[in-house]
Amino acid sequence: MVLHQMPRWSARLFRAPPGWRRTCVLGPSMGSRWLPDRWGMYSPLVCRGYSSASGSPEVMLTCKRYPVQRLPFSTVSEKDLAAFESIIPGRVITDPDQVEACNVDWLRSVRGCSKVLLRPQTSEEVSHILRHCHERNLAVNPQGGNTGLVGGSVPVFDEIILSTALMNKVISFHNVSGILVCQAGCVLEELSRYVQEQDFIMPLDLGAKGSCHIGGNVSTNAGGLRFLRYGSLRGTVLGLEVVLANGTILNCLTSLRKDNTGYDLKQLFIGSEGTLGIITTVSILCPPRPQAVNVAFLGCPGFAEVLQTFTTCKGMLGEVLSAFEFMDAECMRLVRQHLHLAIPVQESPFYALVETSGSSVGHDAEKLGSFLEQVLDSGLVTDGTVATDQRKVQTLWALRERITEALSHDGYVFKYDISLPVERLYDLVIDLRTRLGPLAKHVVGYGHLGDGNLHLNVTAEAFSEGLLSSLEPYVYTWTAEQQGSVSAEHGLGFKKRHVLGYSKPPVAVQLMQQLKLLLDPKGILNPYKTLPAQD
Ligand SMILES: O=C(O)CC[C@@H](O)C(=O)O
Ligand SMILES: [Zn+2]
To answer: FAD-binding PCMH-type domain location, by residue (predicted)?
Structure first.
């Protein structure tokens, strides 16, 4: 371990908070108001939030908070319910309490008023449901783990909620190629555990792993914590089965690494947030499980030093580097304050989390040791700690993964997920602190520095139009001026659909609208999402 070669460096032990990273999936009854949060725990915040008896304020209806008009879809009739019941007997949910939980997003920032929740188990059932909805002009909101951050996974009005929760079977896993084929509703953490038992890992990892579904991950093209090493789902997803708006099943479920026959149709459904079709089955390439994983948690005196640490890291750790995340002091303070997690290094203006994943314990430790020596000696890093055993590795990761959760305890959160040239990644955070002054409670910046992805979060006691108008369109204009992306990895959903034009030219937006019309002529699939409203 690095500690032995380098006495200045201390590997410290932290106690994980009780219940940390407990796994759960939606209970079979769906009658419970205790829903798992994105981190797979039954957190008090979520329990309070979903219990109307607790007296916590109701989330304002999306159609009241935002200027949005219901499109002329039909409304669900008794005959429709009977038709659904014949397709999925016993899995048509109309109990208001159960449906309500699926009407509200995890952040408790948007709320629809759907009256019906459907829980199919197979692609054929999804196909029959969509055929009926298409004929009847009924709008449908596909929903996975409901962990999205842009309001894409809950209805805006009374769209039927089609949950993938019961589509949770692994279909096959090939332990030579590492190709996993599974249904869309498999929970990411359960898949991770499943493939790990066979010495593989999932190519993506997210803070929300305990609740999010692989189908949701693919339909939003989720990025996450392993992107730096394993790249986008656009590369690791090998095939998809998708049900189109009219109920047709499109089988592109190949498990081939190479296939240049015609247009790559599956790419249309990756990242289109359920607006072009509902993903029902996924074929995905899993990398072999690394034999040695090390995590270093470092304190840096400034953002310039974080950047230089990253450059040094790439140069010295090269092929074993698997993650480089950064956090500012403000977000770590909130993690300590709201989650009571101990920060293992001296208080610093910035922190970096570096992960290496390789095949040789000794080789990786040696490389990491020289890197740490170099960054410490040159003053790029002022304090740090290293973990090699799994429990400590997870404890360090928790400090990064649980920032979103900590922020949600701080009040209403305005979220921005931006791609920027890495050297400008933190400028907007500094700029906004001055611009917003006391209007904001906290302005924090953290994210996937290795991918040029900033998570800019602004907290306030409550949602406020005034604060919103100081933030938008300012943040988007600023980002567009740097040729950045206004949504790096969270998608556009409902909340960001109107800003697509900041990152894509009019011709591209028009082509997207034409594709939508071609695949979903009645617009029944996840309406009011992804594409800007058309007049
Ligand atoms: O809450 C956020 O802004 C980011 C969530 C997620 O993408 C993360 O990287 O932790
Ligand atoms: Zn992220």
So the answer is: 110-289
Q: Please state the ipTM of this predicted complex.
A: 1.00
CA dihedral 271→272→277→279, nearest 10 degrees, is 20
Ligand 2 centroid, distance to 449 Cα (angstroms): 10
d(CA 133, CA 128): 9
Looking at the structure, tell me whether residues 304 and 224 fall in a common domain: no
CA gap 141, 524 in Å, rounded: 8
Domain count, the chain: 4
Q: Which of these, 337, 328, 336, 333, lies nearest to 433 by C-alpha position?
A: 328
> Rounded distance, CA 90 to CA 118, Å?
10
Tokens found for residue 333: 């303070």
Q: What is the pLDDT of residue 56?
A: 59
For ligand 1, say whether the CB of 408 is within 6 Å of any of its atoms: no
Q: Is the CB of 455 under 6 A from ligand 1?
A: yes
Cα 198 to middle of ligand 1, angstroms: 29
DSSP secondary structure string for all residues of 216-234? HHHHHT---TTHHHH--HH
User: Which residue's C-alpha comes closest to atom 5 of ligand 1?
Assistant: 404
Residues 273, 219: contact at Cβ < 8 Å? yes
| Among the listed residues 272, 149, 148, the one whose alpha carbon sits nearest the alpha carbon of residue 212 | 148
Task: Tell me how far apart the alpha carbons of residues 458 and 481 are, in angstroms, rounded to a whole number.
Answer: 21
Q: Which domain holds residue 384?
A: 2-11+290-404
Q: Are residues 434 and 398 in the same domain?
A: no
Ligand 1 pocket, residue 457 CB under 6 Å: yes
Considering the domain architecture, whether residues 303 and 263 belong to the same structural domain is answered as no
Ligand 1 atom nearest to 457, measured from its CA: 3
Nearest to 382 by CA among 356, 355, 349, 353: 349
pLDDT at 57: 75
Q: Are the CB atoms for 185 and 165 separated by under 8 Å? A: yes
What would the two tokens of residue 515 be? 């594709």
* Token digits of residue 199: 């010495």
Same domain assignment for residues 93 and 189: no
Q: pLDDT (tens digit, 9 = 90+) per residue, 149-189?
A: 999 999 999 999 999 999 999 999 999 999 999 999 999 99
Q: Tokens 């400008």 correspond to what residue?
A: 424
Average pLDDT over residues 197-225: 97
Beta strand pairing call for 140-143 and 160-163 = parallel
**How far is the C-alpha of 280 from the C-alpha of 183, rounded, in Å?**
6
What is the rounded distance in angstroms from the CA atom of residue 153 to the CA atom of residue 101? Answer: 12
Of 38, 188, 206, the one to substitute when testing ligand 1's pocket (max ligand atoms within 8 A of C-beta) is 206
